Amino acid sequence: MADGQWWTYLQAQLDRRGWKPVHLSRAAGVSESRISDWRNRGSPPTIGNARAVAEALDEPLVPLLVGAGLLTVEESRQGLAAYSVRELLDEIDIRFKRVTSEVPRSPVKHPTSTPGNSLHLVADSPDVEPMRVQQEREWLSDAERPDEPGPETGA
Questions:
Q1: N or C: which end of the chain has fewer CB within 10 A?
Q2: Does residue 93 sit within a domain?
Q3: What's the domain count of the chain?
Q4: pLDDT in tens, 53-74
Q5: CATH code at 15?
Q6: What does the DSSP assignment read for 104-129?
Q7: Is the pLDDT score of 1 beyond 50?
Q8: Where is this region: Disordered (predicted)?
């Protein structure tokens, strides 16, 4: 790691959040003197301190270590074969829960075709005919309509 790369990375993270080192100290539970060492001496963190900083910044630990120059990209990557199926499924479950927790709770809406409004949004409802059936009926009625008189039809 180049001297000061950890601090350069941290300073960018602090600037992005509008934080001062004291904010990081409080959020991560790392002493202000330790943060001062990172800034003034270019000292690298211990894994425990890096983990605390990652949690305080709400950043994943490995990308934080890569961004700070403590790990190379190659060191941070493992092939999928290095993981068991259970570990992969657990990771997918964690990520799915994280993503779904960020999705607003609202009814799902689907586009439907209605007379006078070609794209009308309606919420799913057990009282309404399934969307697939409505769409198939619309396609059928469009296909069965006679062509408009015009130059192409010879009328």
A1: C
A2: no
A3: 2
A4: 999 999 889 888 888 888 888 8
A5: 1.10.260.40
A6: -----EEEEEETTEEEEEEE--TTS-
A7: no
A8: 103-155
